[in-house]
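Assess the record.
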Amino acid sequence: MEELIRGKPMNVPATREDLMIVNMGPHHPSMHGVLRLIITLDGEDVIDCEPILGYLHRGMEKIAENRTIIQYLPYVTRWDYLATMFTEAITVNAPEQLGNIQVPKRASYIRVIMLELSRIASHLLWLGPFMADIGAQTPFFYIFRERELVYDLFEAATGMRMMHNYFRIGGVAADLPYGWIDKCLDFCDYFLTGVSEYQKLITRNPIFLERVEGVGIIGVEEAINWGLSGPMLRASGIQWDLRKVDRYECYDEFDWEVQWQKEGDSLSRYLVRIGEMMESIKIIQQALEGIPGGPYENLEIRCFDRVRNPELNDFDYRFISKKPSPTFELSKQELYVRVEAPKGELGVFLIGDQNVFPWRWKIRPPGFINLQILPQLVKRMKLADIMTILGSIDIIMGEVDRLEYLKEVYGMIWVLVPIFTPVLGITIGVLAIVWLEREISAGIQQRIGPEYAGPLGILQALADGTKLLFKENLLPSRGDTRLFSIGPSIAVISILLSYLIIPFGSNLVLSDLNIGVFLWIAISSIAPIGLLMSGYGSNNKYSFLGGLRAAAQSISYEIPLTLCVLSISLRAIR
């Protein structure tokens, strides 16, 4: 027995040498939304990565083009639902610049405070999941302490914690409540100690440094060529911040520094965001201490362009049961507006058309642009590094999948209509001819034809064709597939060759009758060869006999019939 066991070879599992395709997302928590990655792996090494988008399409751009600005404001916080103040800011900044509307100084200060608080909240909710992605769970629970305090401030000022609807054209919806400034100053003092805790816990942690240092490096030229912005750009050594470049709102009145690093790896992007939270606190403290008095909204633009004194019994009163919402007419011009959002440059391209609705509202989301570089960053990296690199990009799928290409779809339909119209006409004609042939055949044979589908059997031909495609085996399983497939092609090629070789003159008349007839006979004899090839390639004697019969039929009367028709036609033309 022992000799048998020793003599029997062991079953050693074979090592697979081919590549493996792994699907990540769209429901994995580390995808930060409904992002799907199709990854090609060679063991643990990433060979290729294909991001798949489109699981969160909500048509935000087309909704904007069918709403007034005020009606559209509640929608915009769904783009980036972690930095909602920025989506509201860009929505009102575009018509403000289009209409040259001045914002009161107090309203501008309030906007800056709200924007920087929203930047802190966004970076906090980036930090926690990013650390959880690379294996550190503790910071994920810590960040909610400060984030809830920020949301408490938002709730006190706007009435809502996440979806605020606070910004307005020419200002903000309401002034800061009594005691809010003192509470915000207390939060700033408390938050500085919280950031120090994060730095002690994370920044010098050797396990954290091992996971992020030197991973996902982006050079200066790469960052510029890919159109990156925000911390992704500044972590590669480029000091570009729209708050300094465009000087929108009142950022140029405060003393603060642009945070940047030069290494371009995941650690640099972490350090940039930590530094930005510290700088945001500096901006908020200066704004709170120097906030001026005055109105919080430009009251002059309250005189919206709308119908004055509508009739009592008109459409609005009878069916809508309320007055229409105030509107703001957009002048006939175009412009591009941008702000420095937590994830990068958030922009809107707006085209007005002397209407209350925008003619075009094109969103430039930073997450969508920054995500383009992901396949390049993860190539030749390990599988575990994908979570680190993806987390350092900081994406929100609400702004990545923000639009719906309805106009482009309509354009494609109009391009395809001229193509499908002749095809549809030919199909209907063939069906009608087949139906008529069956009716005539059934009448000759004095029987009811096999017409069961549709009225009078008009759809029977379509039903037979569908059954042939889905039920019958068109290619023989035991035959020579290549030979079987080439045969019909040769039969068709003979028809095409006749128009290339035979000497036709003008109006498709043979220029030389004698040579033309001989060439026609020679070329037509190619068709039976194709029929014989198909029959032989089927590896079935009955199919082969059918091919012989078809070839004999072609030789016996189809070619002579063609010659007779050709001769009569040529005589008649001459």
